[in-house]
Design brief:
The chain is globular. The chain has one domain: Rossmann fold (3-Layer(aba) Sandwich), CATH 3.40.50. The chain has 9 helices and 9 strands. It is an alpha/beta fold. It is 33% helix and 13% strand. It has a 9-stranded mixed beta sheet, sandwiched between helices. One of its GO terms (cellular component) is cytoplasm. Belongs to the short-chain dehydrogenases/reductases (SDR) family. Its EC number is 1.1.1.141, 1.1.1.232. This is 15-hydroxyprostaglandin dehydrogenase [NAD(+)]. Keywords: Fatty acid metabolism, Lipid metabolism, Oxidoreductase, Prostaglandin metabolism.
C-alpha cells in the first residue's frame, strides 16, 4: 500500500471557485473517450479542490429498517454478455485485496452485500450509514467473521455536505488512504421528491467529487475506482416512480461524463455505474407505503406484477458485479446492467461525438 502524501492525508483547502473540481479538470490528452483511466502525470499534487455548495439535510429510508439482511446460498456465477468493446470481465487491473473501500448505505441490502464481498476479497471497508443501530449491528456481525480491524462504521447523513466531508476525512485518517468508493445510499420517495433528488443524485455527485479529491493522482494519490449505484429505472421510463427514475437517469449521465473528464485529466480514477433490476432489499417495501409513493400508491399492484415478470435479484449477485467493475481496468464510464434473465451485461451506447471528431 502506498503512503499518504507527506504534506497531509487530506486535499488542500479550497482557494476560490473553479469551473469544476481540479480532479476533473481536462488537460490536452487526446480523444475524450471512455476507457481506462489515464496514466500518472508524474507531477506534483494538483490544485485545491473546488468547494461545492452544501447539500440539504435528508435521510435514507432504506436505513430506517432495522431488519438484519441475510443471504441465501451464493448463486452460480452470473454470465456476462454484451460487454463494451475492450471491457471483458476477464480483463486485468486493480485487485481488491489490500485496498481500502468506502461504501454508503452499507448497513443492509445491497450495501451490506457489497461490504461482505469486499471483505471476502481482502479489502478494508468503511461502512457509512444513517441508521446507527443497524450499522453497529452490521459491524458486530462482521467482526464475528472478519478481523475487526478490517472494518470501520461511521454514522452519516449523506445529504449533509459537512457530515459527508467529515466522514471521508475520518476514513482516510483511520485507514491512511482510499482506493474504492461505492455511492450506494438511496431512497424511493415520490411524495417528498426533493429528498429523493437530494439523496439519490446530489449526494452521489458530492461523494464522487470527494472521492476524486482523495484518490486523484493530480492530488498526489494513487488513483482508484468510483462506483455509483443507479437502476434499470435510470435507463427507461418508470411511470410509477418519475422522480426516482429521474434521479437514476441523472446518476448515469453524471457518471459517464465525469468518467471522460477524469480520464482526460489523467487522474487515475475510473468511474462506472451499476443498474440492477428489482433487488430483494428493504427499499422494495416502500412501494406499499403512501408516505413514500404519494399519488403513485395506486400503481403498487402494477409494480408487483412487474416484479413477478422480471424476477427479483439477490444482493449477492450485485456484489459479484461490483468486483468485476472494480478489477477490470478497461471499464471506465461503463453502465453495468444486472437482470435475472441475462445476469451481468452492459448497456451499449453510440459513439460519442468527441470520439468521432477526435476532440
Amino acid at each position: 500500500m502506498g503512503a499518504p502524501p507527506p504534506q497531509s492525508p487530506h486535499p488542500p483547502s479550497p482557494s476560490g471557485p473553479l469551473p469544476f473540481p481540479p480532479s476533473l479538470r481536462p488537460s490536452p490528452c487526446g480523444p475524450w473517450a471512455l476507457g481506462p483511466a489515464g496514466p500518472p502525470t508524474g507531477g506534483p499534487a494538483g490544485p485545491a479542490p473546488h468547494k461545492r455548495p452544501a447539500a440539504g439535510v435528508g435521510d435514507t429510508d432504506t436505513h430506517r429498517t432495522h431488519t438484519r439482511h441475510t443471504h441465501p446460498p451464493p448463486p452460480p456465477t452470473p454470465h456476462t454478455e454484451g460487454a463494451e468493446p475492450g471491457g471483458t470481465v476477464a480483463g486485468g487491473g486493480m485487485h481488491v485485496n489490500g485496498k481500502v473501500a468506502l461504501v454508503t448505505g452499507a448497513a443492509q441490502g445491497i450495501g451490506r452485500a457489497f461490504v461482505e464481498e469486499l471483505l471476502n476479497q481482502g479489502a478494508k471497508v468503511a461502512l457509512v450509514d444513517l441508521n446507527g443501530e443497524a450499522g453497529e449491528e452490521c459491524k458486530a456481525a462482521l467482526d464475528q467473521v472478519f478481523d475487526a480491524q478490517k472494518t470501520l462504521f461511521l454514522q452519516c447523513d449523506v445529504a449533509d455536505q459537512d457530515q459527508l466531508r467529515d466522514t471521508f476525512r475520518k476514513v482516510v485518517d483511520h485507514f491512511g488512504r482510499l482506493d474504492i468508493l461505492v455511492n450506494n445510499a438511496g431512497v424511493n420517495n415520490e411524495k417528498n421528491w426533493e429528498k429523493t433528488v437530494q439523496i439519490n443524485l446530489v449526494s452521489v455527485i458530492s461523494g464522487t467529487y470527494l472521492g476524486l479529491d482523495y484518490m486523484s493522482k493530480l492530488n498526489g494519490r494513487d488513483g482508484g475506482v468510483i462506483i455509483n449505484m443507479s437502476s434499470l429505472a435510470g435507463l427507461m421510463p418508470a411511470a410509477h416512480q418519475p422522480v426516482y427514475s429521474a434521479s437514476k437517469h441523472g446518476i448515469i449521465g453524471f457518471t459517464r461524463s465525469a468518467a471522460i473528464a477524469a480520464k482526460c485529466a489523467n487522474s487515475g480514477v475510473r468511474l462506472n455505474a451499476i443498474c440492477p433490476g428489482f433487488v430483494n432489499t428493504p427499499i422494495l417495501e416502500s412501494i406499499e407505503k403512501e408516505e413514500n409513493m404519494g399519488q403513485y400508491i395506486e400503481y403498487k399492484d402494477k409494480i408487483k406484477d412487474m416484479m413477478k415478470f422480471y424476477g427479483i435479484l439477490d444482493p449477492s449477485i450485485i456484489a459479484k458485479g461490483l468486483i468485476t467493475i472494480i478489477e477490470d481496468d478497461t471499464l471506465n464510464g461503463a453502465v453495468m446492467k444486472i437482470t435475472t434473465s441475462q445476469g451481468i451485461h452492459f448497456q451499449h451506447y453510440d459513439t460519442l461525438p468527441f470520439q468521432s471528431k477526435g476532440l
